[in-house]
Amino acid sequence: MSHGEHDVVKVYSGPVVTVELYQQALREAGISSNVVGLNLSASFGSAIPDSVELWVKSEDAERATAAIEKYEAENRA
């Protein structure tokens, strides 16, 4: 399956706080992203786990995954 330049892919789904941290890591890496599901989370709270998703352009998916892994490695407690 080939991806066009306007295709988007999900790189993470989980709690809103984690999604926001990952989005900041992507921003710092120069990768644009979109958060999907914030309205659902606000309406239902934690009743729907992993309902907030982080999406990037398909051409940025590998770089985004690497940026998230780097963030995780640097912020392990």
Descriptive tags:
3 helices; globular; DUF2007; 3-stranded antiparallel sheet; 77 residues; alpha+beta; 22% strand; Alpha-Beta Plaits; DUF2007 domain-containing protein
Describe the protein in words.
The model has no long low-confidence stretch (mean pLDDT 85). This protein has a three-stranded antiparallel beta sheet. It has one domain: Alpha-Beta Plaits (2-Layer Sandwich). It has 77 residues and is α+β, with helices and mostly antiparallel strands. The protein is built from three helices and three strands; from the N terminus they run βαβαβα. It is globular, with a radius of gyration of 13 Å.
Structural class: alpha+beta
Strands across the major sheet, in which order? Answer: 1-3-2
Oligomer: single chain
Number of helices: 3
Largest sheet: number of strands, sense, barrel closure: 3 strands, antiparallel
Strand content: 15-25%
Give the number of domains. Answer: 1
Shape designation: globular
Report the CATH architecture: 2-Layer Sandwich
Radius of gyration: 13 Å
Structural topology:
Elements: E1 8-14, H1 16-28, E2 33-36, H2 38-44, E3 52-57, H3 61-74
Antiparallel strand pairs: 1-3, 2-3
TL;DR?
It comes from Frigoriglobus tundricola. The chain is an alpha+beta fold and 77 residues long. The protein is built from 3 helices and 3 strands; from the N terminus they run E-H-E-H-E-H.
